[in-house]
């Protein structure tokens, strides 16, 4: 009995293998959703690129427009008080800012009733605000449309998954549903990310525009007060 005991490893015994973790690159994650997923992801990438371009372009423009030198305002007051209107206009033209263009319009109307000067400055200010808000509506549209496009990809992915289930009959495997599930998940995440970035960018730009508008209103009020004192 003791002689029949064998030592060593049983050749028919296979030790359990540790599960191998599989990782996906970003490109594999995008292309794993099939044609529908690739189309949705391409649209979202285009919207993301447009949103980033609008943000940086508007941020630089609004920041430049918001620079207000108090020395410039004081110099304009001094020139207008001295009656040197041409020199004041030249200073405004060289500044090339919304505030300078508003004041230049007011200087060009000096001699008319104060109400007409205020109306001219107000109209110029409205035009300048429209220029500052250029493409902000598009950025707001992207922030709302991107998540919906992502959810569209989710619906397409679930349709693909259910189609595979129906075609397989009773023999359903997880790998058969993978394409539809990948499409559903990746497009949803991508749409939400684009929407969040666009929404935050829109709010940042709107805040900067409001700051510039406030500076424009203050400068216009100071200029009108100067003209009122002169009268």
From TrEMBL:
Record GO cellular component, one term: plasma membrane
Family of this protein: Belongs to the exbB/tolQ family.
Organism, as annotated: Thermaurantimonas aggregans
Broad class of the protein's primary localization: membrane
Location within or outside the cell: Cell membrane; Membrane
Domain of life: Bacteria
Lipid bilayer topology: Multi-pass membrane protein
Residues of the MotA/TolQ/ExbB proton channel domain: 95-217
GO biological process: protein import
Membrane-spanning ranges: 34-56, 136-161, 181-206
Protein name from the UniProt record: Biopolymer transporter ExbB
UniProt keywords, alphabetically: Cell membrane, Membrane, Protein transport, Transmembrane, Transmembrane helix, Transport
